[in-house]
Design brief:
about 850 residues, alpha+beta, Dna Ligase, domain 1, Glucose Oxidase, domain 1, eight-stranded mixed beta sheet, six-stranded antiparallel beta sheet, disordered N terminus
């Protein structure tokens, strides 16, 4: 007997189990079925008609130019226009002829499938399903956009069904859906799946996570009598079962009244009334539900993500007919410790996005398990008891704010007792030991030749630089940012209660105008623009050339002597300030990696826009000195002492606070350089697709891969796992992480609204509430920036809207009329810089980057902490 595998031997048809099945040649549904089949899951037998057959059909009939002509000028928002274009394309397909070599391949495959069932001869009943190349993907399911034809019998009928599937790629709803997803007409093709038709006694859908509440430990099954089309088409209300995924036990069941079912007839399929005794009867027993749940767990493990699975049951045997990722699953914010308390605060201000897997498993644990101990041990003369002070929930960083009795005992008897020593010795510890050690390690690894080093030696370098960087970060939490916050609050309280008169300046005036590293970086760009302005030809070239072209020209040395001089000065700037981070996650690019934002700032200054940073800083410095001296002259006794002590402490820390933040990334250029060298070697070994994919590995995975490199063995490909994580990251990036878990208005007597952003649920109207951090009121268009890749969109006078800002964002403040952020508070970087620039700022809105549209006019009231959405 000839097998199906022997029949199918050409580019137009592939067996269902073929290892050559890819998204490109069999589409999303087909690729999924091939994966399930190869994993040994019970998939009905069949074959694929590849996208090559569709393209050949299009080419032989000359359809592509006529198809594009039908779509040209059609209003994609007008249903009537789309329907007209669809009808034109449908007419073309109906008139088209399937090329003989394709039709013969399809008929041979169908007959081969039928011969596996001799009694059916050439009338084997099959299902003919569409499978587009943009379908059943994690970021867009495209469910229901193309057609399925059931109970197709005979080779000629199969050919007709195939052509109908091809035509369904161009229905009005399919065209509109792809346009909404940003997929061009020429970027899609259609494969077709032909499978044995299972005459199902029951069928339905299974979700391997609860689609209503997002719980990953629950599995939901919908079940009805007959074929699954009755459920998919909404003709029947199915039974709903919720199971515990770990045990397979039914937690809850709703038995629906199922009045109709879909059945097969000689002409195709039809709906039939369900007999009375079955209408309110359970479709699946507990045992059958548990068996199906086991298949669901296997499929979820195979894909590494929650899945939407179509199944059917025939004569007591299950079949899986489709599986796709769940694309709109609610996020479940499961607490690591059910009794814990977690907040988006502290270091989280510079971690606005989901973390990369490598930073989450290497950087974060080093801050908490190594850094905090290294800093607090010499300051408290004891072993710190703060494990997992920072952790991740759904890949977002959170600070743990609930402590065990043992931890509270250490805090009360050791940390609080040592508070005077922490205040006295914390800053010198950072300045004299931790920062110099970090800078030395960074410089040493930046200078080393990496090509001759082994993978193990490179990994040792990664660990050494990472530990120095995260100990440095921990020291800032204790010695500079934390102490700075405390000193500023103390001075403000002393000033407001004992010193300030009605016409006196605000307390923040006494803490501004220092020549910090971010300010010097801004001055450096201003000076670069000032030098370029003396070269008329160079100025014209910079202003009239797209920034992307200027970046490319930086790699050239033969444009002109003045351009070379500009390039050398810019490179000096990057070497000096290019380490200032946008984000604490070392997977994020640095200014050193892409000079685009710096070139945009230079262009701004060349156009005569922005504020001279030299004059602004000097003016603020003079006002600070004058205000401090005026207050000092009129104070005596205890007031003078309290004022002098609190101001001296606050100013000493304010002077270095921004410098310390700018120093966070001192070792990041070296760290990223070593990681990229490791990434190159993993890419050559085909463990990852490209060097930068190394950031998508967890520490344990990276260590295992390095061990394989050292042994010279074959590396396991982690490419698919990495792609899944990238898709998951994009999914999480679209959500708003709760500022506090579980949510509480007060915690330990403190009003949490003063420390955390508001929740998305609290921000539902046309007014966004946040923390007032810099006074003033401005109405202007918003410029929503998600990262440095968006900096070129910023125009003078715009309101800068971002998740957060770090010292690397400082040049943008010269253009901004106001600042609004998702996270942050009065002492965050953005607040301090906004006050120095004299522009309103509202921080901690929680949802600004999601609720405010780019270009939308908004009113920012920095005195009241309110943002009003105008238009």
């Amino acid at each position: 007997m000839t097998t199906l595998q022997e029949v199918i031997m050409n580019k137009f048809v592939l067996p269902l189990s073929d290892s050559n099945a890819t998204l490109e040649n069999v589409g999303g549904k087909g690729m999924s079925l091939a994966k399930l089949t190869q994993a040994g899951l019970p998939v009905p037998g069949g074959f694929f008609i590849t996208t090559e057959a569709y393209r050949q059909f299009m080419a032989d009939n000359g359809f592509e130019p006529r198809l594009l002509e039908a779509l040209t000028g059609a209003d994609l928002t007008d249903p009537a226009a789309l329907e007209f274009a669809s009808q034109q394309i449908g007419g073309l397909f109906r008139e088209g002829e399937i090329p003989p070599e394709i039709s013969q391949a399809i008929m041979d495959a169908y007959i081969g499938l039928s011969k596996q069932h001799p009694s059916s001869e050439d009338r084997k009943a099959v299902a003919v399903r569409s499978s587009a190349t943009a379908e059943d993907l994690p970021e867009a399911s495209f469910a229901g956009q193309q057609e399925t034809y059931l109970n197709i019998r005979g080779a000629q009928a199969v050919l007709e069904a195939v052509k109908k599937c091809w035509t369904s790629l161009w229905t009005a709803r399919a065209i509109a859906y792809r346009a909404h997803q940003g997929i061009a007409p020429g970027d899609v093709a259609l494969a077709v799946v032909v499978q044995d038709l299972v005459i199902a006694d029951a069928a339905g859908v299974m979700f391997t996570a609860n689609p209503l509440n997002g719980k990953r430990d629950e599995l939901v099954i919908n079940a009805a009598w007959g074929l699954g089309e009755a459920i998919v088409g909404g003709l029947v209300t199915p039974d709903t079962l919720i199971l515990d995924k770990n045990t397979g036990k039914v937690k809850h069941i709703t038995v629906a009244e199922k009045t109709v079912r879909t059945i097969c007839t000689p002409e195709g399929t039809t709906e039939q009334p369900v007999e009375a005794k079955k209408r309110k009867a359970r479709v699946l027993s507990d045992a059958l539900a548990a068996e199906l749940a086991r298949y669901g767990s296997r499929i979820e493990a195979l894909y590494g993500m929650p899945m939407d699975i179509e199944w059917c049951l025939a004569e007591g045997k299950y079949f899986i007919v489709q599986a796709r990722p769940i694309t709109a699953l609610p996020i479940e914010w499961k607490l690591p410790n059910p009794k814990g308390q977690y907040m988006r605060g502290s270091v989280v201000d510079i971690l606005p996005d989901p973390l990369s897997p490598l930073f989450a498993t290497l950087g974060i644990p080093t801050i908490t398990r190594v850094g905090i101990k290294h800093v607090l041990r010499p300051l408290t003369h004891s072993e710190p008891q703060l494990p997992n002070y920072i952790l991740t929930i759904n890949d977002y960083a959170y600070m743990s704010a609930a402590f065990t009795p043992r931890q509270w005992w250490w805090i009360l008897t050791r940390m609080l007792f040592s508070f005077p020593r922490i205040i006295r010795e914390g800053f010198p510890l950072w300045r004299d030991k931790i920062r110099p050690h970090y800078a030395a390690i960074a410089a040493r690894w930046q200078a080393r030749s990496l090509q001759t080093m082994s993978a193990a030696e490179l990994w040792g370098g990664v660990q050494e630089i990472n530990e120095a960087a995260m100990v440095h970060m921990a020291s800032l939490l204790v010695a500079t940012t934390g102490a700075s916050a405390g000193s500023e609050m103390l001075f403000t309280r002393v000033y407001e209660k004992l010193v300030r008169r009605e016409d006196d300046p605000a307390a923040t005036t006494f803490l501004m105008g220092y020549d910090s590293t971010p300010i010097r970086a801004e001055k450096s760009l201003y000076d670069l623009a000032a030098w370029a302005r003396t070269q008329a030809e160079l100025t014209a070239h910079i202003l009239n050339t797209p920034t992307s072209d200027l970046v490319a020209q930086l790699r050239s040395i033969n444009i002109s002597p003045t351009w070379q001089g500009f390039n050398e000065r810019l490179q000096t700037h990057l070497q000096t300030y290019g380490h200032i981070i946008y984000d604490l996650d070392f997977a994020k690019a640095l200014p050193l990696d892409d000079p685009t934002p710096m070139l945009e700032t230079v262009k701004m200054y060349l156009r005569g826009e922005g504020v001279n940073p030299h004059e602004r800083q000097k003016g603020l410095e003079n006002r600070r000195i004058q205000a401090a001296e005026t207050a000092r002259k009129r104070l005596k006794g205890l007031k003078a002492w309290a004022y002098r002590k609190s101001l001296g402490w606050a100013q000493s820390l304010a002077e270095v606070r921004e410098n310390a933040l700018a120093d966070i990334g001192l070792g990041y250029p070296a760290l990223r350089r070593v990681l990229h060298e490791l990434g190159k070697r993993l890419a050559v070994a085909e463990a990852i697709g490209r060097p930068a994919d190394i950031y998508w590995l967890e520490q344990v995975e990276l260590e295992k891969a390095i061990a394989v490199l050292e042994r010279g063995g074959p590396a396991e490909s982690m490419a698919e796992r990495i792609e899944q994580r990238k898709r998951r990251w994009q999914e999480l990036k679209r959500v708003t992480p709760p500022p506090m878990l579980p949510p509480k208005k007060k915690y330990m007597g403190f009003n949490m609204a003063d420390f955390t952003p508001l929740t998305a649920e609290d921000q539902t109207g046309g007014i966004l509430k946040g923390v007032a951090t810099s006074t003033g009121k401005v109405t202007a268009p918003a410029c929503v920036l998600h990262g440095p890749e968006d900096f070129s969109r910023m125009k003078p006078g715009d309101v800068l809207v971002a998740a957060t800002t770090t010292p690397a964002w400082t040049p943008l403040f010269a253009m901004a009329s106001a600042v609004v952020t998702d996270i942050g508070g009065p002492l965050s970087h953005g607040s301090i810089v906004a006050r120095e620039y004299g522009i309103p700022a509202v921080m901690g809105t929680g949802v600004a980057t999601r609720r405010i549209q780019n270009g939308q006019v908004i009113c920012v009231d920095g005195s009241a902490g309110i943002v009003t959405l105008k238009g």
